[in-house]
Amino acid sequence: MIRIVVADDHHLVRQGICALLEKADDMQVIGEAATGLEAVELVQTLSPDVVVMDVSMPRLDGRQATEQIRELNTAVAIVILSIHADPILVRQFVQRGVKGYLLKRSIADELLLAIRAASRGEIFLSPTISDVVQTLLLSPSSGNEPKSVVDLLTPREREVLQLIAEGYTNNGIAEVLTISVKTVEKHRANLMTKLEVYDLPSLIRIAMQYGLVFPE
């Protein structure tokens, strides 16, 4: 039996995924998460075989949650769900060790296949991502590829950037992350310095450009 945690911040989407998985004789949903942080916590407490995870979530996005889960438990397989087929984003996730990347419009046809492949240690990418792109994504990196500017940020700075882009005020960010408003202001100043931007719209554009948040 493949033991699965489902992480998606949209309740109805999460319900639909769980209903689909529960129909399979070889799968069992053992936990649900509405945030990336909850997904990490469930991996710690439940040790699932597979985590099915949305890219865009509050309290750690899919990329941040993936990084923390890989640090905690290298045995768990992660299958990413996204509305975006951006090759750069897909490659970033594959390089972080995910075993699947599915487009949300293809969940009904592909999710069970992806989970079974992931549980065997195989990589499954949506067939709608072309063979040429898949070959590029799975080929060894040259080592000369430029790093994303977001890679310059600390994990906490990325959390703050994501929350800023999601519309949280400094007070709201302080409450969510359980830190002081003064600390939030310091992180915000560091973000602007590192990213070389000096206004809120520019911060939001960068967060969207590098997949920390997506327009609904």
What's this, in brief?
With 216 residues, the chain is α/β, with parallel strands linked by helices.
Mean pLDDT: 84
Distance between the termini: 34 Å
Largest sheet: 6 strands, parallel
Strand order of the largest sheet: 2-1-3-4-5-6
| Fraction in helix | 40-55%
Give the uncertain stretches in residue-range form. Answer: none
Principal-axes shape call: globular
Structural class: alpha/beta
Query: Approximately how much beta-strand content do the residues carry?
Result: 5-15%
C-alpha-based Rg, rounded = 17 Å
**Count of helical regions:** 10
Number of strands: 6
The helix/strand series, from N terminus to C terminus, equals EHEHEHEHEHEHHHHH
Structure description:
- With 216 residues, this protein is an alpha/beta fold.
- Helix content is 50%, strand content 14%.
- It has helices at residues 11-22, 36-46, 62-72, 87-95, 107-119, 131-138, 155-165, 170-177, 181-195, 200-209; strands at 2-7, 27-33, 50-54, 77-82, 100-103, 124-125.
- The protein has a six-stranded parallel beta sheet, with helices on both faces.
- Helix 7 (155-165) crosses helix 10.
- The chain starts with a strand and ends in a 7-residue tail after the last helix.
- The mean pLDDT is 84.
What are its keywords?
globular, six-stranded parallel β-sheet, alpha/beta, 216 residues, 10 helices
How is the secondary structure organized here?
Layout: E1 2-7, H1 11-22, E2 27-33, H2 36-46, E3 50-54, H3 62-72, E4 77-82, H4 87-95, E5 100-103, H5 107-119, E6 124-125, H6 131-138, H7 155-165, H8 170-177, H9 181-195, H10 200-209
Parallel strand pairs: 1-2, 1-3, 3-4, 4-5, 5-6
